[in-house]
Write a sequence for this structure.
């Protein structure tokens, strides 16, 4: 699909020091909807995204009348918005009360273009077991949401684990007290044999169990989508062939549960656990959690303190609309979250910062190098974190169009050390300059160091609810 019109590629008032061509999706969204409303003939479009069991979420925005010359921007703009809805909320059928030819053009994008097919395959077919449908309707289906009360259980002896792309973390918790944490490097993304994953997870669990008198429950946090502890889709296993995925990976955590004698086990998306950890730490609700690690994880705790059915896969949500935005190596799309809020983003900014590293150095090692330079006061490293902070500020403004967010917790390996605070300071500056009303109501939080690294594993330990003994 064609890039957004030049009038939507807006130069930010707060510029990232190492990315002068950055054009935030947040400013494109604001400009498009403001221009449409100012036209005097705008119409309010409803996008209704349906999941399983009739769950439906709505998003409304102003668009131009069909005969307005600027209406030509509707299709590429709405493609970015629909992509946001697919990855932030998840679903398989999108109903819109707009022109049939607009729905057909969007459907064609998801049927025929490489990036559209990726979105449709991963979100609709693999997560929801349905082909993606986009239809024009006279009246969209009514909104129907789900709120899930999970986590915050601390009784007994528990193990929590968090599986990232560069390390796996584990915590042993006894009656709410954290008595052991551990972090082990691994490289799961392109491993073709699931036994590698199985043995690595089992090793971490054994390390934690050695510090407990018994194990009553286990909770896990991992990138991907999990239903009843079964793996639907997960980047951790993308090196595994499809047939082997179905035969071995799909029930991998059930296999682990059996190996531990059927102990109570709950595995959830790492972003959801991030948000849960943030809500527990802050003792607040309406919390958006964002973890900057190997990729970007996101999670949402609603105003009731509960999780929802939204998938919150922020690694694929649009951030930057410049035509030359960096390309995500998995989806093939340009300008999406994984290239802006992750170890990949740090590695990408090394060159512009003037920091040289060996060609064979892996992203975790590059991040460690930047963090060492940052701790030593190197201005080149600081500019990397300032750039990440500008990205973050603009993206929070964009996400606020889709989430009724009041608190944001930012954590993950990228935020460790003094660079994390620089990021938040810069993000707050963006909000103050560009989005003052949002700046007044949105609180940004950075946890203390140990929680940044092990908070998800600790929060995951609280997921299972032990049944009272008879």
């Amino acid at each position: 699909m064609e890039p957004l019109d030049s009038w939507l590629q807006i130069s930010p008032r707060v510029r990232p020091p190492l990315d002068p061509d950055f054009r935030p999706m947040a400013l494109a969204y604001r400009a498009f909807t403001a221009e449409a409303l100012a036209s005097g003939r705008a119409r309010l479009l409803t996008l209704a995204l349906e999941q399983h069991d009739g769950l439906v979420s709505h998003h409304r925005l102003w668009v131009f009348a069909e005969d307005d010359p600027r209406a030509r921007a509707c299709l590429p703009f709405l493609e970015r918005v629909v992509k946001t809805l697919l990855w932030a909320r998840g679903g398989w059928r999108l109903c819109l009360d707009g022109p049939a030819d607009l729905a057909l053009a969007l459907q064609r994008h998801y049927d025929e273009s490489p990036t559209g097919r990726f979105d449709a395959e991963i979100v609709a077919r693999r997560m929801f077991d349905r082909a993606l449908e986009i239809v024009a309707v006279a009246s969209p289906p009514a909104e129907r949401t789900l709120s899930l009360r999970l986590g915050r259980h601390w009784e007994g002896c528990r193990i929590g684990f968090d599986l990232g792309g560069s390390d796996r973390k584990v915590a042993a918790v006894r009656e709410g007290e954290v008595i052991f944490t551990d972090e082990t490097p691994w490289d799961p993304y392109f491993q073709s044999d699931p036994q590698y994953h199985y043995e690595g997870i089992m090793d971490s669990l054994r390390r934690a169990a050695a510090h407990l008198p018994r194990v009553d429950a286990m909770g896990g946090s991992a990138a991907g989508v999990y239903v009843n502890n079964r793996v639907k889709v997960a980047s951790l296993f993308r090196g595994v062939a499809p047939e082997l995925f179905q035969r071995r990976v799909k029930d991998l955590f059930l296999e682990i549960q059996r190996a531990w004698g059927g102990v109570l086990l709950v595995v959830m998306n790492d972003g959801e656990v991030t948000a849960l950890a943030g809500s527990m730490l802050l003792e607040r609700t309406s919390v958006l959690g964002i973890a900057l690690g190997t990729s970007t994880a996101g999670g949402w705790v609603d105003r009731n303190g509960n999780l929802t059915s939204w998938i919150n896969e922020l690694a694929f949500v649009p951030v930057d609309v410049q035509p030359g935005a960096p390309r995500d190596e998995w989806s093939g799309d340009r300008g999406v979250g994984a290239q802006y809020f992750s170890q990949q983003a740090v590695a990408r900014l090394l060159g512009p910062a003037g920091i040289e590293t060996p060609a064979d150095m892996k992203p975790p090692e590059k991040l460690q190098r930047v963090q060492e330079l940052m701790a030593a006061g190197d201005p080149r490293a600081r500019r990397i974190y300032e750039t990440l902070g500008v990205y973050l500020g603009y993206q929070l403004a964009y996400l606020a169009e889709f989430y009724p967010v009041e608190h944001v917790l930012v954590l993950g390996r990228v935020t460790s050390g003094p660079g994390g605070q620089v990021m938040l300071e810069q993000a707050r500056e963006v909000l103050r300059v560009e989005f003052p009303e949002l700046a007044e109501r949105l609180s940004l939080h950075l946890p203390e160091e140990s929680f940044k690294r092990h908070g998800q594993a600790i929060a995951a330990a609280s997921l299972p609810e032990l049944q009272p003994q008879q």
